[in-house]
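HUMAN: Can I see a protein plus its fold?

ASSISTANT:
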Amino acid sequence: MFRCKQFVVQQAHCAMKVGTDSMLLGSWCEPESATQILDIGCGTGLLSLMMAQKSDDNCQITALELDEPAAQQALENVAASPWPDKIQVIHADFTSWQRTTKQRFSLIISNPPWFEFTPSAAHNADNQQRDKARTAARQQQSLPLASLFTGVANLLTDSGRFYFVLPSGAEKTVMGLIKEQCMQLVAIVNVKATPEKAPYCQLWCLKKNSDAGSGTDYLMDKPVAELIVRDNEGVYSDAFKTLCQPFYLNF
């Protein structure tokens, strides 16, 4: 169980438990006046619940999850939250679902599988004792980044935003997909565990490129921000506490 200030996340039946990366993404994401939000790969439902807390009362959230036990867990978490009528949990494969839905979304958020799938990575000695569902959730076999970006580009409204988190090593791939899908970089944050360590993940915000084909730089020349989670003594930084204050019980 993971307790936030306004809701509780049960996670016994989910392969991927609540982590700092999702808490950072949900805290950083600004739904503003979004009326339709899509959470791709919702897992426990954490990001959907965070968006429900932060968004306007009239906002509707669609939480999509491929793994059936996780989808059921998300359903239970939503039902027990203050916003049971605001979030719809759907057990479905995103790649197939996005081809048939007529919905369009003003905000899409995702903590997608981080690692490229390889049979050796899925079955090596370090992973043999792990839950198979956790391995599937971490690797891009069911949702490659290219498929994710293609679907998001199809479902996003012209003024919509796409928020996601990936490991720092994925930057080159992401930049290529941004250009390929005619999107623009709005903001990016390098996240460090401590001041001396290299960034281990990046928070991204993209939008559709309304000037595609006009020569406008798809990167928009945006500076890269930095967020440090803990100081050298292991204490949460002021920046981290300020960002996540609406959710963490002790902040």
Observations:
- The radius of gyration is 18 Å.
- Residues 117-130, 132-140 have pLDDT under 50 and may be disordered.
